[in-house]
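[retry 2/3] Outer membrane beta-barrel protein: previous attempt timed out, resubmitting with same input.
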Amino acid sequence: MQKIFLAISIIFLTSVQVAAQINRWSVSGTVMDKEGKALPSATITLLDPKDSTLVTFGVSNPVGYFEIKNLREDELLLQVSFVGFSSFSKVIQKPKEISQLVLGEIRLQEKTADLDEFTVEAIAPVTIKKDTIEFNAGSFKTMPNANVEDLLKRLPGVEIDADGNIKAQGETVRRVLVDGKEFFGNDPKLATKNLLAEAIDKVQILDRRSEQALFTGIDDGQREKTINLKLKDSHKKGFFGNITSGYGSDDRYAIRGNLNKFSDQQQLSFLGMSNNTNEQGFSIDDYINFQGGLQSMANSGGGMVRITVGGPGGGQSPIPLNNGQRFNGIMNSHAIGTNLNKDFNKKTQMRSSYFFNQIDHRITQNTDRLNFFPEGDVNFNENSFQDNMSANHRLNLILDHKIDSLNSLRSTTNGQYTLSDGLVNSVSSNRDQEGNLLNRGERSNLTQGDNYQLNTELLIRHRFSKPGKTLSANLVFGYNAGDYEGSLYAENEFFGTNPGLEIIRQENFQKNTSFNYGGNLSYTEPLGGRKYLELVYNFRQNLNDVNREVYDIEGENRVFNQQLSNKFNSVYTYHRPGANFSYNSRKYNLVAGIALQATRLNGELLLFDEIIRNSFENLLPSLRMNYGFSNTKNLMFNYQTSVTEPTIEQLQPVINNADPLNIYVGNPELRPAFVHSWRVNYNSFDVGKFINLFASAFVNFTENAIVNAQSIDERLVRTITPMNVRNSLMANTNINLGFPIKPLNSRFNVGPNILYNQGYNMINELEDVIRISSLGGNIRYDYNWKEFVNLGLSANINRQETAYDFSPEQNQLFFNQNFNAELGVNFLKHYSFLGNFNYLKYKSRTTDFNESIPLLNLAISRFILKGNKGEIRISGQNLLNQNFGVSQRADVNFIEQTVTNNLGRIVMLSFTYKLNSNLNPMNNLSRPGGGMRIMRMMN
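[retry 2/3] Outer membrane beta-barrel protein: success.
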């Protein structure tokens, strides 16, 4: 029966396919200029001649040839366009006796000042402009009131993860611009999460060259993946933005709004948000910066610190999943900011922003860790509670001034003030494999303080009359000051052969001050024949002063603890002369460089009357090459060397007992680590077929690698000290392939990846080789039916194995899996439905850990008011009430699972009001979808 059913199915599908191909036809031709030179990547658009709506489109290949297949219409309007040339238009008919219409050569004329009275231009979904891929935003449908992030998800070759991080053609996007200008500094998420998708006319994806390359005109091979959002003209006529307010169960609320006024000369934006629903409008780096005061104190031996043991490459899974969210726990967030970009004239421009953010974060966490020691395995368990608050003010100011055609100045200033407050309470224990209690501890740690940061740069540039000959000087200055205080109370009880109870009561005070200043000088000289020489010299000096005082509390008295206190100053001096040779051709550019890095460290431990002096010299070669097969195919190779010098904290032999069961001590004998890095990237994007392929391979080899060696005594008190080992190796390969299935209005993306780490670990002076291998990847399917239905299905799976030489039977194996389904439906003109289902699964073969988390979010909206300016939404978040998050990771000698509290079920009623129609009278003239524009031009 099954064979009969299979045969009938094959016959049916084949007949459907054959029927679908009957009466289909194609059109082909070759696009050239008037001299007969091929025009690659020309846009060929086919329109319905009745209403000029877009039917399909394609592009010409490197020799100018194009062919568009599977046409069904009897009559079409053909338009051929190329940047800098007048468009060619012609009505074509379906051939009567053959299935292909051959147009032959189509020669385009260069644009002149004379224009026809009527010009019809079709806007293709994608256009190639040199090294820029430009998408027409109107060709990629989004749900009403969608933000830019939702728009980017629909572009081929663009991926956005659960945290909002963006990848384009397989590379991380570091910067998002608005009309070529920075938006709130260099945080991409402030633009993608706060600007409306309907305000965007074009999305440009480009590999932005370095500031030095843009100035000198010499390609140095350095690239930064950048997205530029070009606004519609209708949104440059006045204010636009939106405001959302919602209230829900358990007194949960969310308020968010933004207001923008953009023109060609000025960009003014305001944004604000406040919620207790764990929503974020900024990147993880901002959150880390907001916690900077606490972390600064921790790194200097402060009161609040959790020491982790790092293995080769960190040893963590490439996808540490926590309910698909970066932030667990319960978080209240408040933020307000303004961005002002202004072009005073053609010579002077200003870019500025101010941003304030306050975060209150409460975390309840349970950690189970299986430690692998040569003497036997140990089970560690910890229950902890954290209550952290941080308030951060951040100011950015950039001034660009062109003195004349040969000279320019650029000033950059960044200021930040952070106020931090943190509390950690924890109860932990260690047991042997038979379940016998080895030790237990209770700890309460309180830290509070503030931190000031100021960094400024002045870039002076001069261009000589000889092309390619330039001189630039960059002067830098930085200041950082922190003032912290904290307290520690700990009870540690030990069992077994050496039982006892240890009680620690301490207070600590710390002040940090650091200055840094220096400069960079660069001179470029053309050598002829597209060859250039660059001479560079870099100088830096950092001055640090730290005064940390620790007092033991004995009754009502405070007794100074000199062993744990630390007062030191240090001067770190850095010289780096070097030279780069570059060759630029039309197809490729090559940059080879060599530099000598000399560093000096002079430090004084005032309480111990000890001097630390170290000096290091290293020769650093580099090689970069970019080869462009075409505007959409590129191969990049990069080899770099670098030196990682030990920090003053790693060098000073001072005890940090913030966690009395995990003590940290520096090592004055540390040597710098020398890193070799190789990277190969291949990027290809077929504009006509919407097929993108990205592949990369990355290898890091580190000599004299620095690892945290562990010494564990009979009470299982761990002392951690940084030490040099022979080397470490990390290799990573990933591929991303995306392709459409046009008859099904669908698109597939497949991305396998392989990661391999090899390094050394030291436990009780025993050196062991550790190998961590990870195999995984993701697959995604998207279906779009006009503006009515959007469906997305995805899976992300990772398998990680950790192998030990000293004890192969303790090798670790675990799986992290994430399955996701998204559905968006517009119906009955004024209604929309959104659904999202996540299924996360964590499984360990080493332990019995096996956890699954289903997450369901649903929302239904009713659009009201003229132009759908208002939206009433009822939404349910985490409807299955999974109020915890899970993660698991493997490191040098353990496997760990962590369960963290999270928000449970939230049902919320919200209202969104969109500001643009009333304040932008041209807005209603824009045709929905943006697929076609008709312009009347008079001679």
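[retry 2/3] Outer membrane beta-barrel protein: Residues 1-21, 115-120, 284-326, 917-939 have pLDDT under 50 and may be disordered.
[retry 2/3] clearing retry counter.
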